[in-house]
Design goal:
With 330 residues, this protein is α/β, with parallel strands linked by helices. The protein contains 13 helices and ten strands. Strands 3-4-5-6-7-8-9-10 form an eight-stranded parallel β-barrel, surrounded by six helices. Strands 1-2 form a two-stranded antiparallel ribbon. The radius of gyration is 19 Å and the shape is globular.
């Protein structure tokens, strides 16, 4: 079994170790002059890169407006994103943008017109090319956590009867329909990941979708949860959460690398997840907010400034007020 310090090669791109910073919105940060991204984001992601993460997946960025240089893609935001990509590269790390279809659209997939779907797909495609041009090594499409793309994936939500609903092949078409174009227009090493859950709504659905995504050419699966968090139980002896168990289930069923995650707060957990073969990469979210040098500390056996698991960063608007971070030192 691999070690957490081992590199992982995806599409010829070497990820220098098995620790991935998970996408996390930085709710309190504001870019300058009305731009979404700015100096605070640059410093935040540069610190994560200096902290040793092999892979850094940026927070969810809505693709809406990408073709018009609007929304989260204004020229000012792009300038900050370019600096973030460069800061990640400067540490020999791999950087990816997470792309979503916006926050506020609570409609069911059935309510989308064909023209709206075509427009969204075009923005999903353009955003990947934009991320590539800004210097990122890849993109992750956010098909998890109940947001728009997730609802298209989940058979209980997506009741369309056209090419975007019904059969699993149709429910992933938003991505698979644009993947050949993305491949044509990006370097061979450009990584395309999907964030998804195992239950869509049943385990067999998620496993089937994961296999189809692999067959369609997706390079990496970041396995979190879909419409709802799984409640378990987990198999006897499995020392991680039901969300982490989903990654292990998906990993058993696909050949592409899988990110496993949830509640990883200690060096031992991070190492075990990879070394016991449950996942190829260990995803670390809140523990990176508590200690941006978490990867370095794990890799060099130094004490980790452990996340308290208080979930404040999830519900409050400022992760910099993390109670564990008060004591976080280099
Ligand atoms: C402050 C915060 C913001 C988050 N934002 C995103 C996001 O933008 N996209 C996403 O897919 N997940 C997001 N998540 C979920 C995390 O990526 C991760 O799955 C979750 O925190 C569980 O991992 P952890 O236990 O290591 O924190 C967020 C979580 C937190 C705490």
């Amino acid at each position: 079994m691999p070690h957490v310090s081992d590199p992982l090669v995806i599409r010829g791109q070497q990820i220098k170790n098995r620790i991935a910073m998970l996408p996390m919105v930085t709710f309190s940060f504001k870019g300058e002059d009305g731009n979404y991204y700015g100096e605070q984001h640059v410093a935040h992601y540069a610190a994560a890169a200096e902290g040793g993460a092999g892979l850094i997946i940026l927070q969810s960025t809505s693709v809406v407006g990408v073709g018009r240089d609007q929304g989260m893609w204004t020229p000012g935001s792009q300038a900050a994103l370019r600096r973030i990509a460069a800061a990640i590269r400067a540490q020999g790390a791999t950087g990816m943008m997470q792309l979503s279809a916006g926050w506020n659209d609570e409609r069911s997939p059935d309510a989308w017109s064909g023209a709206e779907i075509a427009a969204l797909q075009e923005e999903l495609r353009l955003a990947a090319l934009r991320a590539c041009a800004l210097g990122f090594h890849g993109v992750e499409y956010h098909f998890a956590h109940g947001f728009t793309l997730c609802r298209f994936l989940d058979a209980s939500r997506n009741r369309r009867t056209d090419a975007y609903g019904g059969a699993p092949e149709n429910r992933i078409r938003l991505l698979t329909g644009i993947l050949p174009d993305i491949r044509r227009d990006t370097p061979a090493s450009f990584i395309v990941s999907a964030r998804m859950g195992e239950y869509a709504p049943a385990s067999a659905d998620g496993v089937g979708l994961a296999r189809l995504l692999e067959r369609a050419g997706v390079d990496l699966l970041n396995v979190s949860f879909g419409m709802r968090m799984p409640e378990g139980p987990v198999p006897e002896g499995f020392a991680f959460s039901p969300v982490t168990c989903s990654a292990a289930v998906i990993k058993r069923n696909v050949g592409i690398p899988v990110i496993g995650l949830y509640g990883i707060r200690t060096a031992k957990q991070a190492a075990q997840l990879v070394e016991q073969g449950y996942a190829d990469l260990v995803g670390v979210g809140r523990a990176m907010l508590a200690d941006p040098r978490f990867p370095r500390h794990v890799l060099y056996g130094d004490p980790v400034n452990a996340c308290l698991g208080c979930k404040r960063c999830s519900w409050f608007t400022d992760h910099t007020k993390c109670p564990a971070r008060k004591t976080a030192q280099a």
